[in-house]
Amino acid sequence: MADVNADFQYGPGARHEDYELDAEQCWSLLGSSGVGRFAFVHEGRVAVYPVGYLVYGGAVHFRTSPDGTVVNSLPQDGVALQVDAMQPSVQAGWSVLVSGRAEVVEDAHELTTLFGQMVDEPWAGGVRDAFVRVRPERLSGRRVYLAQ
Amino acid sequence: MADVNADFQYGPGARHEDYELDAEQCWSLLGSSGVGRFAFVHEGRVAVYPVGYLVYGGAVHFRTSPDGTVVNSLPQDGVALQVDAMQPSVQAGWSVLVSGRAEVVEDAHELTTLFGQMVDEPWAGGVRDAFVRVRPERLSGRRVYLAQ
C-alpha cells in the first residue's frame, strides 16, 4: 500500500481513501462468474435487479425471463452491470461497473455454448432461459478503505 | 413457509421460487441505515455507485461529493436506490428497489438533522458533505430462494 498519509488532509472523510481500478483489476474482480446487478431504464425509470452473471468472450451474460421487464426493454444502450463486495467491519469495499449495450442472444450456437458455461440456475423461479449479453464499452471501478 | 410443492412444475429453474415483497417488508429490510447502490443516468448511461444510506422522514438519503458526477446529474426523476442481501451457499437472497426523484438537500435545518442522524462517514475519501435525498414514489422488492 502506498503512503496514504502523504495526502492526509483535515476535513470530513479525511481518513477515508479511495482509488480507481484499471481495466485489468476490474476484469480480475469480475472473475468468470458471480452475482451482480443489471441496471437499465424501463418506462422512464432506472431499474436494478440482481443477476447471476457469466463472463465469456469479453462480454457479460445472464439469464432472465424471455417475457419479463428486462427482455422487453432490450436492446438498450448505456445499461450497466455492477458488481461489488463490501466489508462493513472495516468500512472497505470495491465496486466495478460494466457499461455498454445489452441485447438478447439469438444465435443458436452461441446459446449452446453459454448454457454449457453457466454453472448455476438463476435463483429466481420460473422459466429464465433467455440469455442477455452486455458488451462492455466502458469499464470502471473503485476501491475504498479506511486508512489507519 | 407455504407448501411450495403445490406449484411445482418441471422445467428450467423449477425448484427455484420467488415472491414479491410488500411495502412494509421493503421498509423493514431497508432498516434505518445500510449500504445500498444509487443508480441514475449520467450522459446517457446508467451509472451505479455504492452509498451508505440513511432512512429518515420517509425518504432515503446519502452523502456524496458536492462537485461529483452524482450531484452534477441532479435533480433527476426516476432514479433508484437498490439494496440487497445474498446467501450464495443456499442460492437465496432479497432485493429492494426505491424509485423516485433525487435532489440535493439545501435546507439548513434539514441538513443539521441529517448530519446528526448519520452514524458513519462515507467510506470513500475526499469531502462528501452534500446530502442527496431520494423521495420514494415506487417501492418494490423480491425474495428468491431454492425450495427443498
TrEMBL record, chains A, B:
A Pfam family per the record: Pyridox_ox_2
InterPro entries: Pyridox_Oxase-rel (IPR024747), Split_barrel_FMN-bd (IPR012349)
Protein name: Flavin-nucleotide-binding protein
